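For practice. Any example?
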Amino acid sequence: MSAHSSSNHLSSTTQEFLDVLDITNNLVLLRDGTASMVMSASSVNFDLLSEEEQEAMIYTYAGILNSLSFPIQIVIRSQKKDISGYLGHLQETERGTHAPQKRAQIAQYREFVSTLVKERNILDKKFYLVISYQSSTLSSILPTSPFPFKKQKSTQESQINIPQLIEKAKTDLEPKRDHIISQLARIGIIVKQLNTQELIHIFYTIYNPGSSDGQIVESSKAYTSPVVQSR
């Protein structure tokens, strides 16, 4: 077997064992028939608030959690700060500057920022909220097993009516999304549902850190390489 065919074999095998079936219509579809909606959430600098403001925020936040009649997942993702876009902007500014002294200052500042981020290992934290829908009829007809074998996954996938799952998931999840958005706005947290392209980018960078730079896609079919690369 050639090295090329071996690499393809490894990639396709890895793909089959991922939980994600597809990402479409602003939803993440899983192989067990679950459809998840992901929302990004802004942050609040709690330490800068006065003691009274902190107590008020805690009290309000507790009330928001108590108002939820459905499960919600809070995900915090930490990754190395990506300043490549900013450094590129500085480099373009440097090239467009005719004054030698000013150009040298921009170059010195660009080098300083690059070194600072590299040495300090500055992390960028992003916050996400996830709500999910799963058809009760689907889970009742699927065989249950404690072992996630490939055969069972194929059986599950064959039972999933994707257009119907998407329609029912949107009907179920959109009112919950609106409730979360309006409630968290009370404490200054801005929540926004991620679209298909944003979701694909997140999952692609999770499985392939640093390999999706410059890729802009509209659907999961638009990637020219597998979601998980073989090593």
User: Anything to note?
Assistant: Residues 34 and 134 are 5 Å apart (CA to CA). The chain is about 50% helix and 15% strand. The beta strands are 20-24, 27-30, 34-41, 73-80, 123-134, 191-193. Residues 82-121 form one domain.
